[in-house]
């Protein structure tokens, strides 16, 4: 067993510097690496390029980094829940690349899998395809999209072990698996770090080979963005 | 004239037995409530769930279980979870049979705009561009006109496009229309709405053949 366990978030975040490109898992506030984000705020690293489906809300998730102007550029598919984001983008303070959601995850997965680029139909005929190579296959038009290049990938899983194996829960899986191994260093935080050997190898979602550092996170808030319920 | 629930009820009739369906945010989400209960349908949400159920009872909501609109949900027996990459494999690979989504504008050529108003609203396209570029069957749920009373069914879209030549059918508060090579073909009128009302509210080419029946909800 190759040990990936680090003592805490401080050790896990070693090497993160200004001007780096970071991938961050999560969909909305579901499955976001809360410990890593909070530590980035504390580190006060600046000029970051963040690849993340969403940009958090005003006072949680990546919204905390935006608030402190730590982010130079966001690469996302949907940023509608964050007023500060929209303000910084429309005023030109923040550089934004909006990417179709399926393309966004595939650009991560391509980096993980060693593909430099791929063709997708998403965005053909729209401003997303401007300046990109397009090609026809079987009578349909496709756009060439390139793999991301990132320094760190921060993901969050439900359970993990010191070998770096990960299991996700519910829809908190989302972008996290495709970001594992898609950056130079992948840091996984888990709700529960279990003894090696206690996870069933049949049930592992991400094998430890894609993870360089793993630690058990603390104080998960797991905030719900749109609590929607029916009465009994 | 239909309200949002009426639009959802009419679209629900387009959902057939054995369909995997992706519902967009807004009116499309309501469609799930009105699908016939004697057919088998599974709802896919692009954040990574197939077999979505109703919203949870109060106190039973789970932060790790949401739909693409970030609302708390439940799952039904036979449901599955997966990552975003596999989710878009289902969509791009045309394994999802029907996509229902909202729009700001639709053109008579089937172009759709629903993600951006330059200089004003820039929320992002989310999964909409992947969905419209791939789905074989796309139904748009929207109001026939915008808040200023202007038609949303146009010769050409004025807003940045989400996809080209992809919309097949549109259900509005006034009508059901099909996108054909010659323009918007009027299929049904909403209760209490005349063909004349629909003509007035449609900027794009409207094709009217024979008597246009009133919708049955």
TrEMBL record, chain A:
<dbReference type="InterPro" id="IPR037171">
    <property type="entry name" value="NagB/RpiA_transferase-like"/>
</dbReference>
<dbReference type="InterPro" id="IPR012792">
    <property type="entry name" value="3-oxoacid_CoA-transf_A"/>
</dbReference>
<dbReference type="GO" id="GO:0008410">
    <property type="term" value="F:CoA-transferase activity"/>
</dbReference>
<protein>
    <submittedName>
        <fullName>CoA transferase subunit A</fullName>
    </submittedName>
</protein>
<dbReference type="InterPro" id="IPR004165">
    <property type="entry name" value="CoA_trans_fam_I"/>
</dbReference>
<dbReference type="Pfam" id="PF01144">
    <property type="entry name" value="CoA_trans"/>
</dbReference>
<keyword id="KW-0808">Transferase</keyword>
Automatic annotation (TrEMBL), chain B:
<dbReference type="Pfam" id="PF01144">
    <property type="entry name" value="CoA_trans"/>
</dbReference>
<dbReference type="InterPro" id="IPR012791">
    <property type="entry name" value="3-oxoacid_CoA-transf_B"/>
</dbReference>
<protein>
    <submittedName>
        <fullName>3-oxoacid CoA-transferase subunit B</fullName>
    </submittedName>
</protein>
<dbReference type="InterPro" id="IPR004164">
    <property type="entry name" value="CoA_transf_AS"/>
</dbReference>
<dbReference type="InterPro" id="IPR004165">
    <property type="entry name" value="CoA_trans_fam_I"/>
</dbReference>
<dbReference type="GO" id="GO:0008410">
    <property type="term" value="F:CoA-transferase activity"/>
</dbReference>
<keyword id="KW-0808">Transferase</keyword>
<comment type="similarity">
    <text>Belongs to the 3-oxoacid CoA-transferase subunit B family.</text>
</comment>
<dbReference type="InterPro" id="IPR037171">
    <property type="entry name" value="NagB/RpiA_transferase-like"/>
</dbReference>
